[in-house]
Structure of START domain-containing protein:
Amino acid sequence: MKSRLFALGLILAVLMPTLPAFANGDDDLDELRTPLGNEWRLTRHDQRRNIKTWSRLEDGKRYRSFKVEAELEGTVDSLAHVLLDFENYTKWFWETRESKLVKQVSPTEFIVYMVHNAPAGLPDRDTVLRGVLEPQTRTKPFVMLRVTAAPDYMPQKRGLVRMPAEEITVKFSPVAPNKIHVEAEGYFDAGGTVPAWAANFVQRSAPYSVILGMQRMMGQDRYMLAKSPLPFTVYGWSNYN
């Protein structure tokens, strides 16, 4: 796994088959070399899958922030079951080799621990995240997810670098009987020493990959037909129309 991240050219050559709508390698290299400012720059527009991604470099931050808009096929119920199945994030979340629920603080607040693969020659990263869900109501159709890093919540593990910052806000809105509009914006700092090209490549590519993975999981019967109760109430598009 790590060897495929040895150099940027190798990353693009290996990952492009697994990300079928990825832009061509020359465009990727040009985009990574071009300085960013405070304004959002469109970095990807997958018209077939209805996914757009943007990036920008904010003042006072080491790495790029990202923004995503997409439309997912599925229901809020199936989406909620995917999001709450923390142990299976390894099957779809970007370069995740370990994930687990540490504590359920309340029906809508969760502490999650994850370990991510790092480029060759660098120690893998781990992160402790606090996720807070703002559920739908009968008058508010969207679900809001806010994720922040909690690096001091757990002791650091030997051989891993703890990610010091992660700030992500995601809004999920049902817009049709079987369609959800997603708006996400965020930033993360991998901590330690990371080549700028590697960090920027992840910031640019991970959000798109995560959306693809989320869509794939939502289409599985275990989530589409899930009967296990959710810790909060969800509503479909028909409840608001």
